[in-house]
Amino acid sequence: MKRAFVALGVVFLAGCSTTVQGTPTAQPFDSGTDSAFTDLLTECDAVADDRIAETVGGDAIQRGFFGAICRWDVAGPNGIVKVTFNWFENGSLDAERDANEQMMYSVEDITVQGRKAIRSQPPNDPGSCGVTAGSPDSGVVGWWVQYLPGSGSPDPCEAATTLMDLTINLSR
Fold first, then answer.
1. Each residue of 146-166: pLDDT tens digit?
2. Cβ atoms within 10 Å, residue 147
3. In terms of CB atoms within 10 Å, which of 92, 94, 97, 121 comes out highest?
């Protein structure tokens, strides 16, 4: 019985081995897809810090967490503004819409530079707004702007849309 298992194991292992001829070569990450938009691989640099501050009406900016979600605190005449950027390679506008609707946010279809997008606002928080658009390759990118209560803030949706416009402009 032991010999049968050993023989079966040898046959199994022999069937799993393969020899590949040639020399291995590294391939670029983007595989030749829309290379101008791959600048977002440095997600938090999609829009320069000074442009973010200018867009939300601030004059001082501090970077926070970086990764798939990037955060900034911007200080200016309207107080502190919280700004968030996200890029989800496997995301979709439908999934973002569903998530926002489940949180009872108002969701509106918009376009940014001809690209489908959604604008979302939470109930009872007129100082917050997010804009999410599909990326040219796959996934979604989004901006969220939150003016703190009592700041007499400008329109956060306008700021989020402008940040999205600046981001999508990378793909041109």
1. 998 766 678 999 999 999 999
2. 25
3. 121
